[in-house]
Amino acid sequence: MTDPFLLWPDPRLRARAAPVGAVTEAHRAIWERMEAAMRAMPGHGVGLAAPQIGVPLRLAIIDAGESGLVRLADPEIVEASEELREHEEASPNLPGVSALVKRPATVTVRWRDETEAEHVRRFERLEATSVQHQIDHLEGRLYPDRLGPVKRKMLLDRYAKLRRRG
Q1: Closest listed residue to residue 95, CA positions, set 47, 160, 153
Q2: pLDDT digits (tens, 9 = 90+) for 65-74
Q3: pLDDT tens across 21-35, in order?
């Protein structure tokens, strides 16, 4: 059984996640739960942040490229390109809706992995979109926050209508 996803407008989705500090066996177990939840998503997701399943820690995973699954503890963007890339984004926290979101086309991210090793790496294309999307979750932001006010209202109204239909 996988962890349930928090559903918008759960206030825990708006809270900034706490730093991980030293990676422990408990953190590795959370990553395992996150991977199981991500793999169970319809269409198989390309990333997940711990707050999405109610764990308020700065843990994320992405699986959006040739690198395979990447586990990130305390990730931070250290550089972002001026060039933007538009991609259709969705979230299991807002099931049934999606939107085109513009983000930097490439980002350089610093994080620690499950062995405590520090990494600094440049992500491109879908991996760049996914890692930015997950870091947003760690900051208490969701992809609709990246939309203009009219598009955001339309998306959230459509989501509310879907929820009412149940």
Answers
A1: 160
A2: 788 999 999 9
A3: 999 999 999 999 999
